[in-house]
Design goal:
Layout lengths: L6 H11 L18 E5 L2 E4 L4 E4 L2 H5 L8 H13 L10 H12 L6 E5 L2 H20 L5 E5 L8 H5 L4 H4 L9 E4 L16 H16 L4 E6 L15 H12 L2 E5 L23 E4 L11 E5 L1 H5 L23 H15 L2 H22 L3 E6 L4 E8 L4 E2 L2 H13 L2 E2 L1 E2 L10 E4 L7 H17 L3
Parallel strand pairs: 3-14, 5-6, 5-7, 7-8, 8-9
Antiparallel strand pairs: 1-2, 2-3, 4-10, 9-10, 11-12, 12-13, 12-16, 15-16
Helix pairs in contact: 3-11, 4-11, 8-9, 12-14, 13-14
Bound molecules: pyridoxal-5'-phosphate (PLP).
Length: 458
Amino acid sequence: MAQSFNAAELIADDKKYVWHHLTQHKVYEKSDPIIFVKGEGMRVTDINGKQYLDAVSGGVWTVNLGYGNETLCKAVSDQIKELCYFANGYGNIPTIRFSKKLIEKMPGLSRVYLSNSGSEANEKAFKIVRQISQLKHGGKKYKIIYRNRDYHGTTITTLSACGQEERKMQYGPFTPGFVEFPACSVYRSPYPAGTTNLGEKFALELEKVVQAEDPDTVGAVILEPITAGGGVIVPPDGYFETITEICKKYGLLLIIDEVVCGLGRTGKWFGYQHFNVKPDIVTMAKGVAAGYAPISCTVTTEEVFQDFIADPSDREGYFRDISTFGGCTSGPAAGYANLCYMEEHNVLDNVVKMGEYLLNGLKELEKKYEIIGDVRGKGLFCGLELVKDRATREPVSEAVAGAVVAECMKQGVIIGKTSRSFREFNNTICLAPALITTTVELDEILKALDNAFKVVKA
Ligand SMILES: Cc1ncc(COP(=O)(O)O)c(C=O)c1O
């Protein structure tokens, strides 16, 4: 049933009462916020009736099965009528079914801990590392290494592990014990052209930092399998193999943040499964229930889980963590339905095929427009790095990348860009269409970009 509303009144109330994410509200003195009222497949309609094609799955790579998916709607609605909530210290049917099915997709991992945002899932991972340090290493192995350009969340501690300076500015002081190591961008490699074994070289930067910090004090490293909001950076061959060796050598837990890449975005169930790597902890959120309910997971190996098994009289030997909304049943009900839907409709195959189609289309644009310095990606997750000059690779300003986004928006196509991440590197256009996309929508996206690049100059 269509909702009835008074558009002018709602826009005025939005401006008066709502504080939008990542937004300087001064802009609304001269323009109105875009308010969406309806989504169907990959298209959304705003309050004025304008339709848009969504090339970024809900803006932040979340609505992976598109809007109005009947299977997920029904799963959520049926479950909340049956039992909407009970604290996760107790069990419920959707959590059991979802956890079992998720673990089937993650050989080598065995336990699922639920919460409700990517930041929270990563906080849990950090708490696990800190507690293991107390339980097994006298509290000494408490440091966590993160990578430049990676993002792990919005809380003060996940920002402490954030490699994007603009997200951190003005929010310090941060949680102690977090240390950065360099990014692995091949396009912006510090090594001379023609350097071989780039993957290994980038990974060895981790070892340098571990040694400098004193290996006995380092408990874990956290990495996105493909850096997402930091510019869609795919690690070079050999990278994760060397990271794994370093983790083994120094007894570090490897945390893989699959908040963006997880659940099919890159053409495999998880981004790390493209590489030869065995994580100890995997976190995930956005695609888990594809935006139909909030849910996040911190998944661990049995070995990690066993570190928390002790005599019940031991008041410190278990994971003393809780998340109120980790007991909402809508999340795992939608998560289970999402996994079943993806299997039944061979969604991963579609991601691989459509991902190649999109990447090839973007490479054609790269041939036409000098402003495109680099095209990269995996599956339905692609980035275009824009430059003023291909030879020097000088990045375009954030305003230029913003103009490309705005030109696509005028044509009714919503694309994304790195946003408020780095002072000089908010120059990557991001595309992450729903995993059920067809060539029809991809052609429309490519056409909009083609038109945008005809008018936007570096
Ligand atoms: C890689 C990564 N990790 C963690 C997060 C934080 O997730 P949330 O916004 O659900 O807290 C994000 C959000 O964009 C992300 O991209």
